[in-house]
Amino acid sequence: MNLSSRFAPSPTGYLHLGNARTALFAWLAARGADAAFILRMEDTDTERSRADYAQAIMADLYWLGLDWDEGPDVGGAHGPYRQMERQGIYADLFARLLAQGDAYPCYCRREELEAERQRQRAAGQAPRYGGHCRHLSAEQRAAREAAGQVPTLRFRIPDAGVLRVPDLVWGEREYALTEFGDFVIRRADGSPAFFFANAVDDALMGVGLVLRGEDHLSNTPRQILILRALQLAVPQYGHLPLILGDDGQPLSKRNGAGSLRELREKGFLPEAVCNYLARLGHYYAESALMDMVALARGFATSRISRAPARFDAAQLEHWQQQALQSLPAERLWTWLAPALRTSVPEDRRMAFVQAVRGNVLRPQEGEHWAAVCFGHFHGDAEARSALEETPPEFWAAAAQTLQTVAGDYGSWVKTLQAASGRKGKALFLPLRAALTGRVHGPELAALLPLMGMERALARLAAASPY
Ligand SMILES: Nc1ncnc2c1ncn2[C@@H]1O[C@H](COP(=O)(O)OP(=O)(O)OP(=O)(O)O)[C@@H](O)[C@H]1O
Ligand SMILES: [Zn+2]
């Protein structure tokens, strides 16, 4: 079975999470089957399409960890991969459909079509093209052309029959062909209608599996009719439930849904985003973080859910935490470093990232811990009140025992416990508050050697109110 798959965005804005999940599923399906993955830019909406958006989309997909065997930047055997560069291909196909009688020019004006729809609605019928230009004679057409009327091209729906449309997510649906009116495949300006270019490009590019948003479900029967008329292969289709925003509406480039880039700029890791999205509407038995190979291996269209999914920030944070836990120390440093204002000595970087990795979700959160280890910080209110509740003798004992054990954390807390008679929270909370300015955070055992004896003693001294 041909499981080559594709992602076909319109370069009309930055990718949002809905687009990204659709791209990810299509990529996982291809890679899980060792099949090719293709990227195609659907830029026929010339008013909204922009070259810089196309660049940004590719950069965002690469950032996410997706790659493609064929696409606008890497070329391939079925190019070009920007639809505006494929006009000649569409022109040949339009000519073929015209010659076969499967398409015909329509001269109806916008107002006439609108009036027809209104009449149909008023009569309680579903609006569809009534077929006015279906049977124009050659002379009638010539007369309209001579009068300067520029036609659209309509696809001629077969007069009778049913069309079975299988779907990997929704199962098979049946349509009576009489439900459809003849539809426009080429606009008056010569540009191809979206679902025409989209369908023929999938077939011409050898795509065998089309996974896309549910917003395209209603296009599928018409696309199958076009492909059949052209004797092109019909791919398997699977329509993914759309991802909804907080307003309950599907995320869309048009309504300015939060973009993948925003998440990236906030410091979310691609591993986190992929693990989050892969499970949004797809079931994995594995609940731990998975790499792309494992995600691809575990992907199956039969595990796609039909329920609409909503963006859930808490889930994304969960995966961010998981991803940070397993990130190699070098990459963790690269992730953290740009947000640090306190300088971290080169030979301490790896120890520092290991110490803090469980306590940061954003790079900015690393700054406080850098200040704790290598600079100066301001304690927060909780930490200050923990200090106020602790008597001066404790701080004196803490400083003295720390010196006795030469900064060894394990010996220090044992000795201090014996000297102060405190244990558990009563012992650790004030120490943490004094040394880090917070009541939660990384292991003190890891922080203490990084901050060093001198800083630690100064903080213990400053902690005492007297
Ligand atoms: N909210 C969504 N959830 C899941 N997939 C989506 C969502 N919106 C779009 N998609 C899918 O993303 C792919 C790329 O679509 P497209 O580039 O047209 O994005 P779009 O957000 O619909 O843009 P526009 O707002 O310009 O229509 C398509 O397969 C589409 O079905
Ligand atoms: Zn017409």
Give an account of the 3D structure.
With 466 residues, the chain is mainly α. It is built from 19 helices and eleven strands. The protein folds into three domains: 1-78 and 193-326, HUPs (Rossmann fold); 88-192, Glutamyl-tRNA Synthetase, domain 3 (Alpha-Beta Complex), CATH 3.90.800.10; 381-463, Arc Repressor Mutant, subunit A (Orthogonal Bundle). It has a three-stranded antiparallel sheet. A two-stranded parallel sheet has the order 1-2. A two-stranded antiparallel sheet has the order 5-6. It starts with a strand and ends with a helix. The mean pLDDT is 95. The protein binds adenosine-5'-triphosphate and zinc ion (ZN).
